[in-house]
Amino acid sequence: MTAPLQQFDWKSSSYERPGDVWVCGKACDGRPCRLGPSADGECTVRSQCEPEKVEDRYRCTRSVLYGGKCADGPGTDGTCCQADESCQPRMSLLKRRKVAGAICAAISLACCLIAFAQSGPKSSLSPGAIASAHAGLETNCAACHVAAEPGTNLLSTAVGLHLSTADSEKCLKCHHDIGAAPFSPHSINRQRLAELTAGADENPDSVRRSSQLAAIVGSVSSNQELSCSVCHQEHHGRSFDLSTLSDQQCQTCHKSQFADFTHGHPDFEQFPHQTRPNIYFDHARHLNAYFHTSDETAHSPGAESSTSCSTCHHLDAGGGMMLSADFDRTCATCHESQIVDLPFPGVPFFGLPQVTQRPDTESGEDSIHGNWPVTEASLRDMPPFMSLLFAEADSGTSPGGISSAMIWQCKQLLLQVRRGGEMALTERLPKEYSWLADSFAGMSPMLVAASQSWFPRLSEELAAHATNQPLPETAGVALPETRAVPPTRGWYISDIDRTIRYRPVSHADPVMRGLLDNLAPLVQGEAVSDELLEMYTALANPSGSGEISRSGPLATGRCLSCHTTSTDGDGVLQVNWNTKKPIGDAPFTNFRHESHTQNNNAESCLTCHQIQKEQQALDFFRPEYFTRDDLGRWKPQTEDACPLSSGLSPIKRSQCVSCHNKSTVSQTCLECHNYHVHSP
Amino acid sequence: MSQSSVNQRSIDRPRRWDMPFSQEAGHDSVLTDAEIDSLLANDAFSQIDPAGFKRSVPLREILRNDVRLVDFQRGDVIVRHGDWGSSAFFILSGAARVELDRGDDASSELIQGRQKKTRKTLFQCLAQLWQNSRHAEFRDPDAKQKVSGNIRSVGGVTRVYISDVSAVIEHRKTVRMDAGHWFGELAALGRTPRVANVFADEKSTLLEIRWQGLRDILRFDRDQGLKKYIESVFRERALASLLRTERLFADISDQEMADLMPHCRLETFGEYDTAKPFREMSGDSVDSVKNEPVIAEEGDYPNDIVLIRSGVARLSQEHHAGRHTVGYLNPGRVFGLTEVLRGFRSGQSTEYDARLSAIGYLNAVVIPAKIVEDLLRSGAISDPEDSCRPVTDGTRGVVNENLLNFLVDGKYVQGTETMVIDMDRCTRCDDCVRACSTTHDNNPRFVRHGPVSGRHMVANACLHCLDPVCMIECPTGAIHRDTLGGLVLINDQTCIGCAQCASNCPFDAIRMVETRNAAGAILVDSKNAPILEATKCDLCHDQLGGPACQRACPHDALERVDLQSLSALEGVIAR
Amino acid sequence: MTLFVRRRITGATFVVVCSLLLMATSRTMESHLLRPGTWLGWLLTFSVLFLASYRVRKQLAMLPLGSSAAWLQCHVYVGLLSLPVFLLHAGVQWPGGLIETMTGLLFLIVFCTGVVGLILTRMIPPRLTGRGEEVIRERIPVFIRMLRDEAEASVAGVKDEAPSEVLSELYLRRLHSFFQRPANFFSHVIHSTKPCTGLLNALTDTRRFLNARDEQTMVHLADCVKRKDDLDYQYAMQSLIKYWLLLHVPLTWALVVFASCHVVIAMAYTSQ
Question: What is the pTM of this model?
């Protein structure tokens, strides 16, 4: 058993001082001094022995701790006899660690200060490459960051002394098309946002648990200004997709949340029929009943041998929307003849109404109003357009005919037209109906011709009437035996009922269109004058069956049999002449037909646009589509949510889900929806 | 500190009696010759023959330097239960009253008035960061000089008093002691804590003698009058309270106690009055077990019940050719009671389970088993069978016997704050030493080395022993027990650097250091010899939060363990 | 189950549970446009500051700031937790600029050295306890010198009785340099006993040339070699357990500096 190396007694070992900065230079050699270096790193070995002067002799005073008095004792001059064993103390390991720490911290600080003080592009501050779209800005930090602008105090910026959207304002320098309210949700102004979300479900159950948990930490409120970086985060590498948002991120603000498109997305119950279609067109009837009869060619649009969806519909230039072809290529095949060829007498603009029957003046009536060649078929009243010309005069009409005073006024007017042409008519129009002048301009030659035919001696008669002289005799005007097919389209004189009528020249007749366009806004609302309604009814009455006793069989009003009316953005009623509905100001949804119709055949369309099978009969003019007032007059239907059917079933979400689900292609919100709603 | 004192290095070498007891700790009076004469005429000292004393330590000088006269007002507390006293009292005039009731709550008024240890405030603690001396072992030469050279008081004495003495007398069990009584000498000599509260019953003057002086008087008094008196007094006064510390006798009536006491013997084993340094006395031979004085032998009929008063006793059992340490008993523990009770219950004869032997000096009270059996039979004391507390017969059943042997043989079981380091966890980072250094003016107060047993090291840090042998032979009493917690502290203002304590300490926990001045130069005396001072762990008694070493250990390796019961150590080992 | 095992399980559970919680929180925030990066960044900043403050706690040993062991437990588990926080914060993308790169790199280095240090502090102490006398590292040169003196004395022999030249030759050739200073650092780090075994074999091989007295000297020399080897082992291992801090601590300060700059930049340049 060898003796242990260590001895613990106080004489053999003293305190170890691991906290000291300096260690004896001879420690590594195994001969450290008992005292060790001073706090300043000086060797203290000389202080072990300081000879004491007793009288004139020096005496060794070395303590037992250092080996006791030396045998030799100090020299005569008081110097210690021991060899100088002083050393150069060294730093302790702990101290070296501290020095290393200080050096590391100093180098780091220097690096950071250099990075901050860099004058050029501060790529050393960049946390990562920016997306390729912005790569040109990479060296120009100030392009995006307020903090990088010269003269900005970085520290004050760091503690938040700047606007939260200050940096985002810089984004708008390039992205100036975000809209008027770039920092409000969906870039739409808050008022509109409030309208759109007025009916949002406030039921907290529909808010997901995770959203409730996230709300503990904080929330992105739709009431606050949303900076661009809320969604678009940069410095994530060249190929990072800046515009990607997850479904949950989209739903952060939404009250009614759901898992994904497959689970919980609202069904398209009304789409695409949520809004009133522009044309009343029953796909089911047309495809099932008309196009598929034995004699296909007679019924198919464009006289094509087979009818597919593409016969009528084609993609727009962008490939997004599916458009309907124009009238000539589609409806005209069957329906043009219904517009121009059918024996409709046309809309009466002028006519000689029946004279009021007065029992006491059974005879000698000619003496009262002179020549007034009415027939059995003559109208009971003046056509509404005609009555406008006499708006200032005392209305002599009464149910069943006009008074003789009015007759004279008519004659007077006819004479004026004969002499002054259309000017005579337009001058008599009330100012608010000045738009009728164009129509009356076409009517005036007919009026001249008719007056010459019906009143050959008009001027004499009027002169006599003015001087109360006996009226000249007039030969009876020839009367056709039967109502003939109107000889012409456009303006013509109908002798059988002594009227001047207008028959549409073709589909999209400009006169009819002009009149309807002008009339439609005027017949809105509750306080509509009878005259306006009459005029509108005369032009628009879709029945054409003569059911309305006062209006008669006016089949030319068929414009609105096919064209619907709706209110535009300002709430003004308008007639939808075109099939394509204008895109609203908030295109939240983005659907591209092109991507979904690879073969462009009927089957591919019918996959989604399914024909309603249950609607067998042509139930087109269902009463609920058209409303009539107490007098049986048809009122314009302005409700957007019209139950009118296009004969197609609503798009089934399950149909979409068959492709847009977890396993196949994307079903994210952004697949179909746009966030930024602004005009492109 | 004046500019001149910064570089001052030469001071007078401190000596015993540089600082008379009458000037210590706030007292400020010197005994005049007349006072000493009157003391010598007093009954307490008149019987002593001064001729027996050594020339260097005459009785008269003992009285002059180790004695002081203290005046107490009615109600002033003189000693408190639990204090570690190092002095004895003699009532010169007036009277004192001893409170016989036990427990802290019984004397709450006294506890409240107890002098608080002066802990540093939070700021003072923090200030150590920058106020610590840059140099090792810095001492203010001025302070050292003042204490050792001149007659000056340092602050006043804070004294606790009982506001309503009559109420205490009425509600508590108290005994009046008139003039001419000694008290406190048993605690002072036996190195045991005070056993009772004592307060002044009326305005009285007491003589207080520090234990070094009392020891010298006992040693040199030829006719042993005081010694005999003290022994008789012990039986009369301390025995009852000692016995009552044992649960078995806690509820015994005064009459039965009086009957019991004459049968009890106060026995001392090992050496007490030896002048030999403790280290030589104890030795560290392998077969120390065999050489230890046997108190009770394993296998014998249990004649006695042994109640340890001071010192440590070993419990061992025969194991093949050698002995097998199974535990140890500290002061207050009882040996043999289990066996006696077992015999009493079964009615059959039993024998001691283990041998009880004294490790070094041991003071014990021996109670004949027959008396206890009689008392049990008569119903004066109840069989503690129903008690959930195990009979206090030691700490047998320790997990690791090697460690136990190591601790007992090395006498580490003395320790109340033994530094045990688990070397399997210790990364030798020295954080403990640095923390110690930070809290002690940039000086470590222990060395992280020491004997290792298995994976446990007992480092060379003060154990704060129950029986601090370092205090033996301290000429000035600079090494003392903190009156409150029993910590062993060194008053560096009164330490004369004689290295007696460092040599006495069996655990190498005390180290002598060269003191330095503010410039870092070593202080030397007039002969250019360095001024040494004893230093040791003070358990950070003035710091907030306890010992810094333990708190600074990042790996739960270093623990200060109270070895009075092994359960604390077991808790540490079993982690 | 002992306290330490229980504590380890608790700590590991804490780290795992917190990691999962943080991951879930981060995901949830991300899916609610709440930008967890900022939040995690602050968490990471405070984690790093807390971890660095352990060093400060050691300086303030005099204050009742809780035990260092408790701090180390927190240090270890918060440190382990900081890696998931870092990964969540930085994402999979490695940063670009100087400051960001250095911050990330330093964090990873400091983390790795910390983990290595943790392993070392748990592995080395039992090995130290099990081999040779327990000594203080700073004193090892003293003991080496003692052994050297002992060995040299035995080779030099007593008075005229110089031992066999075989031994003194061997001493000069191989043992002299071995006894000079702590040797074979790396062999001890990898627990190789090859150098010591080589020396002992060389000593044993001289036996055939030695008489009985010299053989005793040889045995004594061999004992010195063994004890010196134990000291070398203690020196190597105690050094290793200190050297890792030479990387861990200084780099921590560098990390704190870079991380502070990163915070300033991030706060200034982030528009939220």
Answer: 0.74
